[in-house]
Amino acid sequence: MYLSSSRSTPLGRASGATRRVAANVVMLGLVSLLTDISSEMVSSVLPLYYTSVLGLSMLQTGFLDGLFNGASVFLRLAGAHLADRFRARKPVAVAGYALSALCKLGLPAAGASLAGLSTVLAVDRSGKGLRTAPRDALISLSSTPETQGRAFGVHRMMDTAGAFCGPLAAFALLSVVATAYDAVFVASFCVAVLGVLVLLLFVRDRREPAAPGRPAVTLGAGLGLLRDAAFRRTCLFVTLLETATISDAFVYLTLQRQDDLAARWFPLLALGTAAPYLLLSLPLGALADRVGPWRLYLGGHLCFLLVLALLAGSHSGPLALVLVLGLHGTFYAATDAPLMAHAARLLPDHARTSGFAVMQSLQALGMFASSLLFGLAYRLQGPHWTLAAFGTGLLACLTVAAVLTKRGSA
Fold it and tell me: Which intervals hold domain Major facilitator superfamily (MFS) profile (predicted)?
C-alpha cells in the first residue's frame, strides 16, 4: 500500500502518485476498522438474540432487520446536506459515529422490549446514516479520479478487517459468558469510542474553496442530482438490486437452520463472509478502475445469485456452507467499492456528499423492503419458495441492467 498526503494529485500530472492512497483514506479506514469491530460484535449475534433469546418470529426479525438497515434514510439526506452546504464533512461524520457508539449501551437497557429495541436500532442506524455519506465523500475528495476504486478498495479492506475481528471478539466473549449478551454490547461500546477518538484526532476535513458561480447546495439540489440520466439509472438499479437480495441476517439464519449449528458458533458465520471480502476488496477495487466499476458491480451480483440458488436447494454440510459464505464475501468485494467509485464519477465535487446520500438512502430503502418482504414470504410460503422468488427477481433485474449497460445506457 502506498501512502500520500491527503491532497489529491492534480489531473494531468503523470507520476506514481496517481496510484497512491491518501493518508486521510487510511485514517478513515482505521476509524471504520474499529467501528466495524464494534458493530459486528453486535450484528453477528443479533439474529440469534432475536429468535432464540427473545423468541421473535421471522416476520418480527424481518421488521427489526429492515429497521436496522432502513431507518437512516431521512437523517442521511439531512446530514449530507449540512456537510455539503458548510463544506464540513468531518463534524457530521463525528456526530454519526458518536451517536452509534452511545446506542451500544442502549441495547442492554432495552432488554426484551420490542419497542425499546426498535428505538435503539433506529437511532443507531440514524448515526450510520449521518456518517456514511460524509465519510465516503472524504475518501473520494482525498483521492484522484484515477484511483477512486483503489481508494475505496483500501477503505473497504480495512473496514472488513474490523468485520472479521468483530465476530471473533463476540465468539470469544460468548465462550466465556455463555448467553450473557449484555457483555458483548458493553464491550462493543468501548471499541466504538476508540473509533470516534481516531476520527477526531487524525482525520483531516476536506474544505474545498467556494467557487464563484457555483450553485447553492440545498436539499432540493441534492435530490435534483437525479435529473442526471446516468445517475438516475444507477439509483434505480441499485434500489431494485438491493430489494432482490436478502440481508446477512437471513443468509446466516438459513445456514444455521439447515446445518443445525449450535448458538455459540453462530457469530463465526460472519467470518466466512468477511474473509473473502477482506482478501478481495483491494484487488477488485483496483480492477474496477481498469474495467469499469459499474460492470464489476453488476457482475458481482452473479455471486449472490449463486448464494440464493445454494440456499434454495437446501444444501447442507461443510462444503455447502463454505461455498455460500465464500460467494457471499466475494459479492460484497465486487459490489461495495466499485459502486462508490462509479457514483463518484457521476457526481460534482460540491454536492458529492449529497449525491452519495441520495444513492445510499435508496439502497437503504431497498434493504428495508427486502427484509420485510423476505420475513413475510418466509412466514407464508416457507424458505424454499421465498429464496427461489428472490433469485428470480434478482436474475430479472440483472438481465435488464446488463442489457442497458451493453447498449451504453448505464
Answer: 24-410
Of the candidates 80, 79, 127, the one whose C-alpha atom is nearest the C-alpha of residue 103 is 127
Residue 409: count other Cβ atoms within 10 Å of its Cβ.
11
Nearest to 357 by CA among 136, 156, 139, 206: 136
Domain-embedded: residue 211: no
Distance of CA 88 to the CA centre of its chain: 22
Per-residue cell: 207? 474544505
Which uninterrupted H or E stretch holds 21?
strand 21-22
CATH number assigned to the domain comprising residue 125? 1.20.1250.20
Counting the structural domains of the chain, the total is 1
What is the pTM (predicted TM-score) of this model? 0.78
Rounded Cα gap, residues 330 and 320, in angstroms: 15
Report which DSSP code applies to 392: H
| pLDDT > 60? residue 70 | no
Place of cell 476488496: 281
Residues 6+ apart with CB under 8 A from 402: 298
Tell me how far apart the alpha carbons of residues 217 and 187 are, in angstroms, rounded to a whole number.
40
